[in-house]
Design a protein that fits this description.
It contains 1 helix and 17 strands. By secondary structure, the protein is mainly beta.
């Protein structure tokens, strides 16, 4: 069976994640240049990410859960912040040494997923940041989901749109980006919602590979995420 999705690291924050770059160590280069080539580009972001994701680094304040998805075998995925062990369903395949960082987990795009046992997600309109490394060549598929479809705005879903771009949706509302991420390459995605007291879909920010997405289309809706079944990855 052709595998549809590969995930390596998935993280979830209760608050918006902010990045602040210090002045460059290379005095003649722009701030944010970490590689010494006097250009601020993806190589600098990868250096930053390598340091940020290193086990020796302190966990970022506000981080609720993180699944590294770098095991090589077994029916569970460890969660190293709050203990929400991921239970594998279907037949996801461990891909040791193949992920963006160490290993990855491959899903068939049909009925494979990881259940975050005991974790229902983030409720209401609370601020949240979701991030993951993804690799796919499929035209659609869920990446992260929790909540339900009982009323407007009560479900939170991050997925690939039918056009191959990043999409975040709630019940009866959605926002879609413009960058293709179904090219069979690794992409880092980040979805940010800041609670301003009455958050709506139009306030969701999408990022792909460190760059904020231009919005391709959007149907606005109030966000009031329900706590229902355990959160799913895949």
């Amino acid at each position: 069976m052709t595998r549809g999705w590969r995930f390596c690291i998935f993280g979830l924050w209760m608050a918006c994640l902010g990045m602040v770059f210090c002045p460059s160590a290379f005095s003649d280069c722009p701030a944010g240049d970490l590689s010494g080539d006097c250009i601020v580009d993806m190589s600098d972001l990868l250096i930053f990410a390598d340091s940020w994701l290193s086990p020796s680094q302190p966990v970022h304040e506000g981080l609720v859960a993180r699944w590294r998805l770098d095991e090589s075998e077994g029916e569970t995925a460890a969660e190293d912040i709050s203990g929400y062990t991921g239970q594998l369903h279907g037949d996801p395949q461990w891909m040791a040494g193949w992920g963006r960082y160490q290993g990855a987990l491959s899903f068939d795009g049909v009925d494979d997923y990881v259940e975050a046992v005991g974790f229902k997600g983030i409720a209401g309109g609370a601020s949240r940041t979701c991030s993951a490394w993804v690799n796919t060549d499929k035209v659609t598929g869920e990446i992260i989901a929790w909540g339900n479809n009982t009323s407007n705005g009560t479900k939170w879903v991050i997925r690939l749109n039918e056009t191959g771009v990043l999409r975040t949706e709630v019940y009866n509302g959605y926002v879609v980006g413009t960058t293709l991420i179904n090219d069979g390459e690794w992409h880092h995605i980040v979805i940010v919602l800041n609670d301003d007291g009455s958050p709506t879909v139009g306030e969701i920010e999408l990022y792909v590979d460190g760059r904020r997405e231009a919005i391709g289309s959007m149907a606005d809706q109030n966000i009031n995420t329900a706590l229902s079944e355990d959160m799913r990855i895949g």
